[in-house]
Amino acid sequence: MEQQTTVDLPVWDLTDLYQGADDVRIDRDLDQLEQRAQAFEQRYRGRIAQGQVSAVELKQALDEYEWLARAQGKPGNFAQLHFSTDTTDAARGALTQKVKERGSRMATHVIFFTLEVGKIPEEHYLRLSEASELAPYRHYLDYERSLSRYHLSEPEEKILEETANSRGRAFRRLFTEITSRMSFRMVVDGKEKELTQSELLAYNYDPDREVRRAASVALAQGLKPHAHVLTFIMNTLLHEKQVMDRIRGFEEPEDSRHLGNELERAHVDTMVRVVADNFDLVTDYYRLKARLLGIEGLTHYDRYAPLEKERVFISFDQARDIVVQAFGDFSPRMAELTRPFFSERWIDAPVKAGKRGGAFCAGVTPDHHPYVLLNYTGKPRDVMTLAHELGHGVHDRLAAKQHMLDYHPVLPMAETASTFGELLVFEKLNESLDSRQKRLGLRCEKLEDTFATVFRQVAMYRFEQRIHRERRSQGELTTEQLNALWQQSMQEMFGDSLTLGEDHQWTWLYIPHIVQTPFYVYAYAFGELLVLSLFARYKQEGQAFIDKYFHLLAAGGSRRPAELLGGLGIDISRAEFWQGGCDLIRQNIREAQELAAAGQGKGTE
To answer: Under a CB-based contact definition with an 8 Å cutoff, are residues 74 and 364 in contact?
Structure first.
């Protein structure tokens, strides 16, 4: 597989945050944060809950609290971004830990505020909420009050915050360090090579089945030595979640995530049920793919096998041009929001040892631009990953008019712009292809991406549900039990069309979302199904839709998803809405089947 050298790929410039890990301004900013947090506590502690502040005073308190949240975002994000590109650097790790610990110290001075907001007498709160001065913070105040029934006492909350860095946060950091430092050995072009996880996973898309099989074996062999420690981390975090849910009063393991996402449990359950009821779509597709590949008995390393036998390499510059042009065809404004990511070095793209795997977009604060991390290997799907993360980036930039407390959209809404960006690039690429076979190949790649975003994420969500409930009912789980639950959960979506092999059972070990953000993954399915419906509306409405779409993104996290989408006539409580998204996927499968049938009848164009 042709590789682009690290020299050719952009490395982000973090100097508009700080010059480096030893920048004296980091300690200066942390000191100022703590001093202002102490002053905030002295001024307002004990007055909010008692109803002793007017709307004007509460607005002043919220302005200061918002400043603290925004100011903390600068050192916090710098430390995490700096660490993510080299988790083997002890100085970067130490900075990350220091910023977390200083952040906890600051937080102990302001914990009282949200607790007291939740205790404002209802009658007094209703009067306050009608005041025009508080209009910018009304959503945030309502959200914090929705959390109040799960709050503990202030001393208890302080203890939890001060010990967090030696409990769950510590184990999550350990997971990142272990998985980022992993190396895998595989024979490539007759020579054994040592590969990073990102380099190895790129071979899942190789046209040579033996290469894909070898990559699968190498992945399992590289993961197995870490299974004991990663299983211990998983059990520890599962138990910590159990304890925290019990003392806060959450009924189900996933309820705290739904609350954070401002979604009703019933709405998520409806979506998950509809997706699971449509697992037959995946089965139908992989029966088609088996015929197209001429393989009897597909297995896990055939899931992403390309139909084209020629290895395709796309340079980063080509990927940039494809994405920017696709975004620009949708709206010149979208392209304009995207270009600075390249020209101002807001992207870190090289693959290297010690770098965090995968990709992400980090929205720092409303008054600072986002950053994108990639592990770019030049495969066609990397173009989609770039479009996905830049979709997040556009979302963050449009939401910059919101204050910090409403800046970040909740997770399901956060996956809207990213998935929409992928669809724009897919459409652009599809229009540019001049043969049926190439269009079929691209259609199949897009379907596989959709399956990974919708059905795989719901399968993963059900895996999480199972392991949390198993841990609570029977105690610590063995690696073998976790492997079996993983295989069971992931096999369900494929039916009898594809069999997950023995090596696949180890692959839960490197999935970051399960460890870092429990029950995050259903947000991907939510976003994809929502975007399929939005994209169909865009094709019908044209420019009128574009204005509505930008308005949706500009809202950031300032409104609940049901309210925000209700304004577009979307009712997320109805199974019919989610089924509509699945029906659009079924239509795409039908189009792939028709392209395949045309090829069999007429030969290759």
So the answer is: yes
Does the CA dihedral 456-458-461-465 come out positive or negative? negative
Query: 283, 495 in Cβ contact below 8 A?
Result: yes
Residue 314 has pLDDT above 60, yes or no: yes
Q: How many domains does the chain have?
A: 2
| 201 found inside a domain | no
DSSP one-letter string for 188-238: ETTEEEEE-HHHHHGGGG-S-HHHHHHHHHHHHHHHGGGHHHHHHHHHHHH
Burial class of residue 451 in the structure, from the number of CB atoms within 10 Å of its CB (0-12 exposed, 13-18 middle, 19+ buried): buried
Task: List pLDDT tens digits, range 215-262.
Answer: 999 999 999 999 999 999 999 999 999 999 999 999 999 999 999 999
Last residue of a domain, one of 164, 199, 216: 164
Same domain, 290 and 417: yes
Residue 322 lies in a domain: no
My answer on whether 524 and 582 are in the same domain is yes
Tens digits of residue pLDDT in 180-204: 999 999 999 999 999 999 999 999 9
Q: How far is it, in rounded angstroms, from Cα 410 to Cα 416? A: 10
User: Rounded to an integer, what distance in angstroms lies between the CA atom of residue 315 and that of residue 337?
Assistant: 22
- Nearest C-alpha neighbor of 392 from the set 411, 378, 379: 411
Structural domain includes residue 58: yes
Q: Rounded to two decimals, what is the model's pTM?
A: 0.92
Q: How would you class 132 by CB atoms within 10 Å of its CB: exposed for 0-12, middle for 13-18, buried for 19 or more?
A: exposed
Cα 4 to Cα 115: distance, rounded to the nearest angstrom:
52
- Count helices and strands in the chain by DSSP H and E runs: 25, 5
Instruction: Single out the residue of 256, 226, 243, 236 nearest to residue 167, CA to CA.
Output: 236
One-character DSSP codes across 276-316: HHTTHHHHHHHHHHHHHHT-SS-BGGGTT--SSSS-----H
Domain that residue 109 falls in: 24-164
Q: Which two tokens stand for residue 497?
A: 């069309």
Q: Which CATH number covers residue 484?
A: 1.10.1370.20
Q: Helix 455-474 to helix 479-491 angle, to the nearest 10 degrees?
A: 150
Q: How far is CA 116 from CA 44, 52, 65, 119, 121, in A?
A: 10, 11, 13, 5, 10
Which residues lie across from 192 on neighbouring strands? Answer: 187
Residue in 337, 318, 425 with CA at minimum distance from that of residue 8: 318
Residue 356 and residue 85 in contact, taking contact as beta carbons nearer than 8 Å:
yes
Q: 153 with 237, same domain?
A: no
Total Cβ atoms within 10 A of residue 39:
12
3-state SS class at 93: helix
